[in-house]
Every structure is written in structure tokens, then in C-alpha cells.
Amino acid sequence: xxxxxxxxxxxxxxxxxxxxxxxxxxxxxxxxxxxxxxxxxxxxxxxxxxxxxxxxxxxxxxxxxxxxxxxxxxxxxxxxxxxxxxxxxxxxxxxxxxxxxxxxxxxxxxxxxxxxxxxxxxxxxxxxxxxxxxxxxxxxxxxxxxxxxxxxxxxxxxxxxxxxxxxxxxxxxxxxxxxxxxxxxxxxxxxxxxxxxxxxxxxxxxxxxxxxxxxxxxxxxxxxxxxxxxxxxxxxxxxxxxxxxxxxxxxx
Length: 252
What we know:
globular; disordered N terminus
């Protein structure tokens, strides 16, 4: 009986997932258009850093709200710059020219867009009590990637920057529990996922996107109690986990 219930739940979950994907596609790759891209600009990028809450898994509502508020403000951080550079390197390895972020940030039209979006309250959404947004100086965050830039803005940036496509991406860190030890305790591992979008600049149309490419979790545990993960271990693993996720995304 339990087996039948489990099978029924799995089938129901699968059907729900397929229904959602039929309405909101989770990924797409228009090979013909993507293969024509010989130059890009990564115009929006951030890293959602995993942050231990410090109070265990049963966090109180008041503390979660306060923690979320403090986490909403983005911070310029080397981890974001490193991941941005590593993403650029993957394109360069495929002989695609990549405009530097300093060239993008200094473009007058881009700076105008950046200032408008920076003060937009929606730009601060997407954080929660266990993540902190890290950004690259002068570069937009990819919040609501489908609506961040209009088709006309994409076309204009394409002409001014001299690129075939623009890219918007986010590296998002989460924790993953496995190896359950009983009494609600399990080994916790760090994982980073990638959200990715590419728009061609001739018409401003999306030609490649993945709403959540799941990266591989770390081999080393970052803790055993949710909320009490080791910050030093997380710091040590951050770069390699992000790089592995980005590499695997391009290997598919």
C-alpha cells in the first residue's frame, strides 16, 4: 500500500512538473542562432552567496524577517568578479569575443539603465534569509531577466558595444542534505546552481536560457545542523563549486 502511495505521488509530481514546464518553459537552446554568436557582453550578473542563519533549521519568523532585510542589499565582492570572469572564460574558450565589464559599465546608455534599475525596489528582490547578493561593480543584477532590458535596449547595447548577443546570469548557492545520521542530523553540502539567459542583439530576442541548471554538490561537508554550517568551509569551497557548475553547464 505504501509503495502504491509513493508511486502515485511521484506520478502526480511528474505531471505537475510537466504542466508547469508546458506553460513556463524551463530551458531552451536555439542552436542555429546561438552558433552565429561570435561576440557577447555579460550585461547582468550576480552571485547569491549561501549564509548560515546561525539559529538552526527551526528559525523564528521575526529573526528570518530581519535576516532577510539585511541580506537584500547587494555587496561588491571578489567572489562575484571571479565567477563573472570564469563565465567569460568559457565563451573565450569557444572563440567567442567577450567585452570586458569595464567597457560595459562605462557605456553611457548602459550607465543610464543601471542607475534606473539600481534604484528600482524590484532590483532588491530575490534575496532570502540564507542568501546574500554579491555583485560586480557597475554591472546590473539579473533580477527578472526576461524583463530587465527591453528589446530596443538590447538592440541599442548590441550596436554600441559591437556584440552579437548579451548574457544575463546568476550563480546561486544552496545547501544539500544527505547521509542522514538520525535525530534530524545529516551531513550538509554546498551546491551552486546557474540561471542563464542569452539574447541576440539584432532583434532583442532570447535564444538560449536555463532557469536553473543544477550544479554538483561539494565533496566536503559544511556542517551537520541546518543554520549552523561552517562559514570558513563555505568560503574555502565557494570558488571551486561555482567554477565546476559553470564548466558543467557548457559541457552539456
